[in-house]
Every structure is written in structure tokens, then in C-alpha cells.
């Protein structure tokens, strides 16, 4: 495989003015959690698989011991008459040039499907565990700010200070070349753990964008499990400071 | 050398429905030990050499002081009427894209020879020195599970947890694009040392696959040497914990 | 985006024997500070934007929360009848080959505009905070030495000892292939902080090159802010040596 | 510069059955010292310059403050009727694929000039400062062993144990594809310092290969300077072990 390969699972995909959501692995896996929840709840149908020499040489192993080569995938769904495309998956890119090549490829596909609006979803690392409901925004077109503030997105001056690194930022930048409006929605998160609560915050913004109310049960369950893990981490930290070593804990797998 | 180069040592290689075994350097060098043992005992004939700018810029030096440019090689043999191809060698890949390019190339060759089944061989790192006979499996086609369980391969739910990284996993994933059935057989091993015992475990599975009994003498000898090394390591660890420093030991070269 | 992309913002750019200044991020951000000051004070008009898969996958976020894909830019201005081109921007290169490809591209553009002289601007790291007015020079044509000494550039034997690494050195080397005279002007700087004072030193050499006097107010203001930061750093160092820990300080952002 | 560039300084280079010596920077800079000494003493004429995006983005600065883009160079000379080509320079390669591409390019040029024998020169790291006269050999053709032993080259069984990494090994391996006989001559050296004494050892082997006696004065001078540095290092080590810290020493620049 010398080049990225696109596998089309459905030949005749007709969409009307779709919105695209992008949630690749990143800070707190927030974006990934959101899109996986959307695909589940909106009954997304997989239409495209993307394999690439820019992904790690790795297969994931399913519960039934079959393997899956790491990839990214595009799902299509429709809610309230609004066509939606969702880009989800396993990896951003293993190389610098790969980021640009894959990002451009995603936008080739977006253009092909007539996408007019892209939301990239991610986490905004705060370094603190105390949960904050906020969802911070950045846009590639200033006319989007007012609309997004209406959806509950917060715009802070000078934030993020160092810009946005990775696919959720790059895709916004590349959208400029395609005249596609795009915004990055970042849920506030510690940056140390997988964060379903932060995903819930973004989901509520998406509810307002789509004017629906997506069931949150799955994320709520994971959020409760994560609260226990955060409590354990806080306890471990106190124990370390006082000199008592904690027990080995499987829950620590929730830490990214 | 801008591209990977394939040197064919034999022009007219006709094989009937061959099985392919892949054992490149990896965890515990388990896969490598197995295929080297197979090539020796089944009198494999080298048919292909593969050189690549994705291998390190390195030559190995033979006992007679002649050099050999690092490469991978394919051997052909036949046992009990079953044609076999064996991919063995010095290196997986020095770059990310190289993994994908080389993996695809190996499968181009597999398809050319009409390979219908590929077994990639490797080690499953446990972190523990106490030897376990088990061989864990992962497949790219669920129909293979029952057959492999019949050969003594163990399938554990959720294992390996982080998937399989490297050629032995990637080749399975790429086989999906070629409609070649493939399985990864992983001998349990500490992950710290070259492990001939783990190679023996895989060899016994291969005995059942091929319905033969391959002489284990060479591996048995190496396994006994390794047991002495493991004892020394355990003693060294105890000495470190009690404060007595061990002697410098040449056997420590067996550690990967 | 598989290749570097050049966006021309103005079609018909006619320049007469222009001089080019190059100030990409580097030691002390000295070169960057100089060219940004020149663009501001000489009212540079942006004529070219350069995007590249060799830049990091990153967008910067403006005060109004709109994003900008990392890039480099070329500005044109004219002072005292002398046409000037200025190459400024966000990044040198994320890969080795990228350095060479981008450098060659900049010189393709320089040749296209008929550039006859290029000055690359940077910092010469001394490891010391005490400010030194000096600007050290290196040239690709020995005939430039005397002229530059006339502008106040210092030429030290055997300095810089390890040569010049990065765009400001590479561009000089590549100029040899194009028969463009080029010099690297390096302001003495600690190497630990963004250094507006060092930028002022280079600016005064440029004043003599162009026979003008560029207003220094902006740089002067930043230099005064930096002096306070340097004082704080010196105090912090003393505190560390005596055992008193310093307060958390926002000014430390000035450290590169 | 997207590709490696070859600048030919002389159009009509006719050589008769030349021998090629390769001495690129490596362990102890031994090979580099030898070829620079040969070029000087045999009055080598530069015939080719090689620039490459695989070399670092760097210029070296000469005493007169002019710069030189990092490159490798080929010199031609003749001694006792024997045509000689010498490959010398600044760098091996910054990337894995670069090693293979450059190595192949050097051999394209070797073939073009009708080279029948290549000697790559380097250092064999021992970890010890006490000087050993020995020059270890490795060959790509077993028939070379006896001849080289006649020149005083030592062949040790199982040495070098991990093969030869880098240009001096790779070139030998690539020579196999060109039917060019090649040998690597490695002077024993600590591996910690630039080692002119080790270069002298190789030079004496070259004297026997070419049946001449090359003046050693330059290398002898450098060897004496290095002996003083080695003494200082030994003293520093003792001081560290006894607790007295040494003075800052400029000679420590001799350490690689």
C-alpha cells in the first residue's frame, strides 16, 4: 500500500447539503466519544473506510478474536431531515505530511458529498480534574461566531493560546481552500483521562445545532464510571503525598 | 536504491496451494526462531531476497568476515505433499510507510505463488519469566477459530488488549484486501529475552497444522541454554535487592 | 495537500532589483521580530502565501477566534526607491527534506522577482543575558565582507563554530546555485528568550543598508518589557540557589 | 532541491581501473581523517560535489566568513600510476532512505568511472583509550581476505558482532549488486574522541595497498595533540572519582 486507500461500501450515496462532524482520537478522546455516540444513536450507516500508510502498522483485535486493520471511517445518517456525515476512527497520522494528505483527502470527500458545514470535535486541556461544562469554539469564518454562541459555544479571547494542533485544527485551515465553513468545538477536559462528561457537553451543543435531543444514556454511564476513577486518582495522589502506596488498579486503564 | 528490490534466485517456482509462514524479528524473537528452525529442518530452498531502503543501512558480518546487506528472504519447501513458503529475515521496517509498502509487497508475492493461508508468528509479552506453553491466536476470518483451536491455539477474549503492532499484525490486516485467510500465532513469552521455549510451543502447533513431527533438537538445546540465563537473571535480581553486585556475564547477550 | 502550495494574492508584481530580507522563527526569534517590524513600519503589502505539508498540522487562533493555517508569507514594499521583499512566517520546516524543498522554492520566487541580494536574519546564541550590540555576519561571496563591515556588521574568525543550522544558513548555501549574493546577519542573543534588543541591533544595520532610519518604538517597548522579564529570571535563579521558590509568573511566557 | 544534485567540476574525467577510498564522518572520525590526509598528500583534484536534501539544512563557515553548504565530494588523484578516487565530506545521511539513495548514487558514479575496488574506511569502537595499532577488516568477497591480510589487515571471527551500521557498511552491501569488490577497513579506536592515531594505522595499510609511503607528518602532529587531550580526560576521570572538579578545558572540543 503506497498510497492512502478509500474503500466505498456504498456506490450511490446521495446527500442533501450535509453537515459533517469529525471526531478523531485526541485530547481526552472527547471528539471520538462524541462521534461514536452519534453513530450509535443516529444509526449511522458506514459508507467509506480509509486505510493509509500514514496510520500505524497495527491491527486491533475484536472480542471474537478477529482483527481489524487500523483505519478511519465515514458514516452517513439523517436526523430531522438533516443529512449528516461523521468521520470517526483510530488515528490521526503517524507523520507530518500524512496529516496534510489525509486532511485534504477528507475534504475531497466532503466536497464530493456537497458538505457545507464541518464541525471538528476535540478536547481543550485545562490540567484540572474539576469538571467544567464549557465548550470552547474556534472558526474559519467570523460570521459563524454569533450563530455558535447561540448554540452555547463559548469564545474566549486568546484561547487556545498555542492554536490547535492536529486534525481538528488542520481541517479547519484546509477548509479555507475549499470555501467550506468550519468550526472546532472543544470540550473542557483535564487532558489526563478519557472524558465522557466533556463529550456530553459537546453533545448538548450538537443537540442545539441539530435541534434535537440525543439520548445520553451511554455517555452518562461512562461518565459515572469515570467519576469513580477520578476519585481513585485523587486518593492515589493524596496517598503519594502522605507516603502510603495505592493498590494496583485496573481502572487506571481509563487514563489515556 | 530508491525502491524495495526483489531478487529472484529461481525463475520457475511452481507451487500448489502453498501455506506461508512469516517470522520476522519481534517480541522474544519467537517468530524468527520458529522460521529459522523450519527452514533448517524442512530443508527450505531460498527463492527470493528482498532488499529495501526501509531496512537500516547495515551489513551483518559472517564468521568468515564476508558481509551481508540486511534483507528479508523467502524460502520454499515441501512436507507431506504440502508446499510451504517461509518469510524470514533481519528487519521489519525502519519507517511507518515502509511497513505498509513491504507488507503489501510480501502479499503481492504471496498472491503470485497462489498462497491460500498465511500464519504470522510472534511473541505475546507477559512480563513474566515463568514459562507458559500457551499459543494465543488472532484471525482475519472468524471461520478459522474452530480449526485453529483444534491445533491447540488458544483464543482469549480481549487479548491482545492493544491489538498487534508490527508486521505480524499488519500482514493479517492487509490479507483482508487480498481474500487470503490469515492467522497470527503468538507464543507466550516474557518479552525480555530471546525465547526458544516459546518458539517450541509454536512449533508444536505447526506440527499439528502440517500433521508432522518436526525434530526439536536445535530449539531444545537453545532452550536449555536460555534456562541457565534466566536463572542467572533471577539470581542477579535477588543480588541487586540484597545489595551484592553480580559478575559481568556474557550470557546477558541473550537479552534482546 | 501533497505538495507545498503557493497562493499569489497579486498577479502583476513588478519589482526593480529588489533586496530580500528573510526572518523565520529561530534563535531568540530575532529574525522574526525584525521582519515583523519592517513589514509594519515600511507598510509591506502581502503578495504571497506559502502553505506546506512540511509545516506542522496546526492552526493559530486570532483574537477574534478565527483560525489561520500555519504558513509563511512574502511582503513587498518600497523605501527610498528601493524595492524590498520580506519573507516572514510561522515555521521553518518539520522535516529535513522539507528544509531543502522550501528553501529552493523561496529562491525560485526570489529569482522570479529578480532579487539580487538576500539577507537572512537570525540570532547568534551566546548563553549570556548581558546584552551585546553586535551583529555577526556570514556571506556566500567574500566580496560582501567589506561592504557589510561598512554597515556595522562584525566578522569574527571561526564564528559561528558549528556553522549555521536552519533556513538562515541553508538559504545562503542554496543562493550559490542561483548566483544570488547573500549574507546572514545574526544578532547576539542569550538563546533563552525572545530578544527585541537583539532585533534592534539588526534593525540598525538595516537602517545603514537602506540608508534610512526606521522608527524603533514598537521594538523599544518590547525591549523594555523583556528587560523586566530578564530581571525576574535573574532573581528566580538567585532564589533557586538560595532555596526560596519564586511565584508562578506569566511573564515566563516570553521564554521561548 | 527535491533530489540529490551532482555538480561535475570537470567534464572529461578519464580514469584507468581506479581504486576508490570512502571516508565519511563516523566513529572517531577515523575514515574522515584518513581521506583528508590522502587528498592533501596525494594532491587530490576535486571533480564532483554532491548536495542533497538528505544532508542537514546547514552551512559551515570558513575562516574568511564565507559559507559552504554541507556536501560530500569526490577527488581524483594518481600515485605510482594507480588512479584513485576519494569520497570525502560532511555527512552520511539524515534519513534512512537517504542512506540507500546516496549509497546507490556513489556506486553509480563509481561504475561510471570504472572503479574495480572500493575501500570504505572507519573506526572500530573498543571503549578503551589505550591505543591499539590494529585495523580490522570485513569484505564482500571472500577472495579478498588473503590479499588484505598481506597488507596487515586483521580478520577477527565474529567481529564486528553487530555488523557495520552506516555508509561504510552499506556501500559494501550495495557493491554486491554491482560486482565491485569492496572491503571495510576499521581502525581500532575508543569511540569517544577524534582519533588521528587510528587514522595513522589505516594509512599504513593503505601504504601497503598502494605500495608507497605517504608522509604522516600532519596526522602525527594531530596525534600528539590528541595524546595530551587523552591524558587530560584520564586526569579528569580520576579527579571526578576523588571529588576534585577539573578546570573548563577547550581541548575537550576534540571529543566528538
UniProtKB/TrEMBL annotation, chains A, B, C, D:
List, alphabetically, the PROSITE patterns matched. WAPL (PS51271)
Query: Per the record, a Pfam family?
Result: PAC2
> Coiled-coil annotation: which residues?
209-239
Mind listing the UniProt keywords for this protein, alphabetically?
Answer: Coiled coil
Give start and end of each WAPL domain: 220-256
Name this protein carries in UniProt: WAPL domain-containing protein
What is the phylogenetic placement of the source species in the record? Answer: Archaea, Methanobacteriati, Methanobacteriota, Stenosarchaea group, Methanomicrobia
Amino acid at each position: 500500500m503506497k498510497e492512502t486507500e478509500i474503500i466505498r461500501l456504498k456506490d450511490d450515496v446521495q446527500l442533501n447539503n450535509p453537515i459533517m462532524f469529525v471526531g478523531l482520537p485526541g485530547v481526552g478522546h472527547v471528539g471520538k466519544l462524541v462521534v461514536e455516540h452519534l453513530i450509535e444513536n443516529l444509526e449511522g450507516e458506514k459508507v467509506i473506510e480509509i486505510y493509509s500508510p500514514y496510520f500505524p502498522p497495527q491491527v486491533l483485535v475484536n472480542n471474537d478474536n478477529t482483527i481489524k486493520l487500523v483505519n478511519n471511517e465515514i458514516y452517513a445518517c439523517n436526523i430531522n431531515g438533516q443529512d449528516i456525515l461523521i468521520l470517526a476512527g483510530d488515528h490521526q497520522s503517524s507523520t507530518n505530511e500524512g496529516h496534510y494528505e489525509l486532511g485534504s483527502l477528507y475534504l475531497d470527500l466532503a466536497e464530493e458529498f456537497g458538505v457545507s458545514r464541518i464541525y471538528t470535535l476535540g478536547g481543550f486541556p485545562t490540567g484540572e480534574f474539576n469538571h467544567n461544562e464549557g465548550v470552547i469554539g474556534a472558526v474559519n469564518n467570523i460570521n459563524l461566531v454569533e450563530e455558535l454562541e447561540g448554540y452555547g459555544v463559548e469564545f474566549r479571547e486568546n484561547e487556545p493560546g498555542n492554536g490547535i494542533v492536529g486534525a481538528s485544527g488542520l481541517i479547519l485551515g484546509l477548509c479555507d481552500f475549499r470555501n467550506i465553513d468550519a468550526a472546532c468545538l472543544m470540550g473542557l477536559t483535564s487532558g489526563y483521562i478519557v472524558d465522557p462528561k466533556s463529550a456530553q457537553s459537546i453533545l448538548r451543543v450538537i443537540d442545539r445545532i441539530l435541534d434535537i435531543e440525543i439520548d445520553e444514556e451511554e455517555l452518562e454511564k461512562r461518565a459515572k464510571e469515570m467519576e469513580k476513577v477520578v476519585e481513585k486518582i485523587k486518593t492515589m495522589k493524596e496517598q503519594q503525598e502522605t507516603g502510603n502506596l495505592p493498590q494496583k488498579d485496573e481502572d487506571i486503564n481509563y487514563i489515556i
